[in-house]
Write a structure and sequence with these properties.
By secondary structure, the chain is an all-alpha fold. Helix content is 83%, strand content 0%. It has a domain of 256 residues.
């Protein structure tokens, strides 16, 4: 299969961004309606059970990534038989994982009260709510989730995005209507599994229509291929545990030590971070298959040059978004949820730093996955997991939510990004290039810091009292000033000319 990488990437980014914007807007409206019509504690339950079930889904995360890696070569070589065998193996294994998740999830039900500090809404049966979320998580394993991986591996992530967009518009609109009209948490809750079923059916239909030649083949994979996949799964499983400590255990620690209201406050801000991260994911998801294809068809030196270009584009966007989060989150939250549900300014700056630190390793992770260096990354993941959990437990007692954020920043910056990046340069790229990468990171970090300081100084000159006008003026400053500073510092970098030519070519419709 010949991939038109630039054209596909541009199409994926376009639909990915459009889908994320609509989803973010609808989720924002839904969260606002729930807070005002039902109460903040209901959102806390939603965040808590979502986090718990994300941890239970770790096995799937490892398996899907392992199969995605296995699909790159047969798709590049048009090996229909091997692709069909892999899809069949994926489908059968997914069903086993679904039953395991249901079993473990049900076994956790007697212990749900441990995860909640203080009271929860009196009219809510938390076990029933949990069962609905558990069933929703398990549904995908029994339907067409494996088809999504085929679309991703063939660089047609835009199909997944289009399906998600169409279903999301219907789904969120219905949920908003239910909450506004009936103020019923249970009605809001029970349509969530319907959304999951419908989205899987749409993706399955679209995948079959676009790639009719790639179907499950009822033949067993070679035992060596199975062993390779399961070896990757075991390694990815460990890595995903570390990632979940950043996302899910944070919410669990806040709930256990500080209560549902505090988890709602934190997750309102984290919702902003995750929404912006979703925009960034449009970029990485759109080029994932292209990177995987390049790894199996190009030399190490060619891939290194490509990675440097991708990293340049990605960190420019990441730095700009980090400054926007630092400058706009607080006035936005004042308008959205009011003074009673605000974090302090120090926490907001820590969240902006948290976002930036996570972005540093995204391109590195993309290449580690494409090269298949999961086994080599296990020790790093274990160390990061234990350090993160220990620091969460230690710092939440003294610094509360700020301690949770700080714990994650420390573990990610010094273990995931430092130690983790060295693995890629040890086993794939040349070791001596590692220093070049660190310098690149330092340069972008310094430029982003300088831009943030200048932006904050300009904020001090704002004299209007209306919070809405403060948000608008800050937004204009964030839109213009950081990018001017980035341009002044980076316009002589040869990668800037690559970016400019790429954007010009895309605008003209060229490949």
């Amino acid at each position: 299969m010949k991939l038109h990488k630039t054209r596909n990437a541009f199409r994926n980014i376009k639909w990915g961004l459009f889908s994320k914007i609509i989803n973010m807007l609808l989720q924002f409206i839904l969260r606002t309606v729930i807070i005002r019509k039902i109460g903040a504690d209901y959102l806390g339950l939603n965040s808590l059970f979502t986090s718990v079930l994300q941890i239970l889904s770790l096995t799937e995360l490892g398996f899907s990534n392992a199969v995605l890696y296995s699909l790159y070569r047969p798709l590049a070589e048009d090996d229909y038989l091997l692709t069909g065998k892999l899809l069949n193996f994926y489908k059968k294994t997914y069903r086993i994982i679904g039953f395991l998740l249901l079993g473990v999830g049900i076994a956790l039900m007697p212990f749900l009260n441990i995860f909640i500090e203080g009271d929860y809404p009196a009219d809510i049966n938390i076990h029933l709510v949990y069962v609905v979320y558990l069933g929703n998580t398990a549904i995908s394993y029994f339907l067409f989730a494996y088809k999504k991986t085929l679309l991703t591996a063939s660089q047609r992530e835009d199909i997944n995005n289009i399906a998600n967009l169409a279903v999301s518009i219907i789904f969120y609109s219905l949920q908003i209507f239910i909450v506004v009209k009936f103020a019923s948490y249970y009605l809001f809750l029970f349509i969530i599994p319907l959304f999951t079923v419908f989205e899987n059916l749409v993706c399955g239909f679209m995948s079959k229509r676009i790639f009719p030649c790639y179907e499950c083949v009822d033949e067993e994979l070679d035992s060596s291929e199975k062993r390779n996949i399961m070896s990757r799964v075991s390694s990815i499983f460990v890595i995903k545990i570390a990632q979940m400590t950043r996302n899910s255990f944070d919410s669990i620690f806040i709930s256990a030590f500080l209560g549902l209201t505090q988890i709602t406050i934190y997750n309102n801000y984290y919702y902003i971070l995750s929404s912006v991260s979703a925009f960034m994911a449009c970029f990485t998801n759109s080029v994932r298959a292209a990177v995987g294809n390049s790894v199996v068809t190009k030399t190490e030196e060619e891939n290194y040059k490509e990675m440097k270009k991708v990293f340049f584009c990605y960190m420019w966007i990441s730095g700009w978004f980090s400054i926007c989060i630092a400058g706009l989150a607080q006035p936005f939250m004042r308008i959205w949820v009011g003074e009673n549900l605000l974090l302090d300014n120090q926490c907001v700056l820590l969240l902006a730093l948290y976002f930036y630190v996570l972005r540093i390793g995204e391109i590195r992770s993309l290449y580690i996955e494409s090269v298949g260096l999961w086994k080599e990354s296990r020790a790093r993941a274990c160390l990061e997991m234990f350090v993160n959990v220990f620091l969460n437990w230690l710092l939440v007692r003294k610094f509360e939510i700020a301690g949770i954020i700080l714990a994650t920043i420390i573990s990610v910056l010094f273990i995931s990004q430092g130690y983790g990046t060295s693995i890629l340069y040890k086993y794939y790229f040349k070791k001596e290039k590692f220093i070049d990468f660190l310098i690149d990171n330092l340069v972008f970090g310094v430029i982003t810091g300088v831009a943030l300081i200048i932006v904050e100084l300009l904020f001090e000159l704002i004299r209007v009292k209306s919070i809405f006008y403060i948000l608008v003026i800050r937004g204009l400053i964030c839109l213009v000033v950081p990018n001017i500073i980035f341009l002044l510092f980076l316009c002589k970098d040869e990668r800037f000319f690559y970016l400019k030519n790429l954007l010009y070519g895309l605008r003209k419709g060229n490949e």
